[in-house]
Specification:
Blueprint (H helix, E strand, L loop, with lengths): L5 E6 L6 H18 L4 E6 L5 H7 L6 E4 L16 H6 L4 E4 L2 H6 L4 H14 L2 E6 L3 H5 L3 H18 L5 E6 L13 H17 L3 E7 L7 H5 L6 E4 L6 H18 L1
Parallel strand pairs: 1-2, 1-8, 2-3, 3-4, 4-5, 5-6, 6-7, 7-8
Helix pairs in contact: 1-10, 5-7, 7-8
Bound molecules: 2-phosphoglycolic acid.
Length: about 260
């Protein structure tokens, strides 16, 4: 079977302003293009407002872009919300939903996240759904059950509707995000294989990626862990040099394995 490209998702959160995003694109879009290969896919997820910059200036780019959230609704009186159709019109190939910062700060539920996934799937955007356990849940051995409770409402919803859906599932343990700590290989493998078992049972087309303290020091260990098909990068993706090094480190590991 042909190996799928390794997916790098840069989650810029609310770290770059519109102007800073414009500067990044101006300075680095050529180099970003050069990092994309048949084995490497790159997605930049800036703030909503910066998506228009990508649409305007990166039309023929080899990398993709996506949003960090979308509305649960198609359209209507929902002040401040952004609909999936507009994201599609702005050229988004992917969109992150269910990030732990949104689950925590805005009390997003698994059911709402399932509706967001449906809105994206209807417009042809691939949802990147973040799931993961807290430190306390990890320490009390609840990782597998927490991941199942986050995934099942999503899988039930999308398989009930007849929309062909491709998913990216980002396993992001909350205790790894921004902490400098990443799970050991056996925890990561076990968590991903529990996710894989569920997805396979629902016959979903998917990619499994990992997020949480992915940087130049951790990428090699993460990308060589079985079942990891990509990474979601927060703070290290803000600096182009770091992002480039992370991608290059993966590419040299990949080349050695061939
Ligand atoms: P981090 O963030 O890479 O800075 O740990 C990851 C995330 O929050 O998605």
């Amino acid at each position: 079977m042909k190996k799928q490209p390794f997916l790098f998702v840069a989650n810029w959160k609310m770290e770059k302003s519109f102007q800073e995003s414009a500067l990044f694109i101006r300075a680095h879009s050529q180099e970003l293009n050069a990092l994309v290969t048949q084995h490497t896919e790159i997605v930049i997820c800036p703030s909503f407002v910066a998506l228009s910059l990508f649409m305007q200036h990166c039309k023929s780019a080899l990398f993709s872009w996506g949003a960090q959230d979308c509305s649960t609704y198609f359209a209507g009186p929902y002040t401040g919300q952004v609909d999936a159709l507009s994201l599609k019109e702005l050229g988004c190939r992917y969109t992150i939903i269910g990030h732990s910062e949104r689950r925590t700060a805005y009390s997003e539920t698994n059911e709402q996240i399932a509706h967001k996934a449906m809105q994206l799937a209807h417009t042809g955007i691939i949802p990147i759904v973040c799931i993961g356990e807290t430190l306390q849940e990890f320490q009390s051995g609840k990782t597998t059950s927490v991941l199942a409770s986050q995934l099942l409402p999503l899988l039930e919803t999308i398989t009930r509707k007849e929309t062909a859906t491709e998913l990216v599932i980002a396993y992001e343990p909350l205790w790894a995000i921004g902490s400098g700590t990443v799970p050991n290989a056996s925890h990561l493998k076990n968590a991903l294989s529990s996710i894989k078992t569920l997805l396979d049972a629902y016959c979903i087309t998917y990619k499994l990626i990992y997020g949480g303290s992915v940087n130049e020091q951790t990428i090699t260990r993460i990308c060589t862990t079985e079942l990891v098909q990509g990474v979601l990068i927060g703070s290290a993706s803000l600096d182009f040099k770091k992002l480039k090094n992370i991608v290059s480190l993966h590419q040299s590991t990949y080349n050695k394995e061939q």
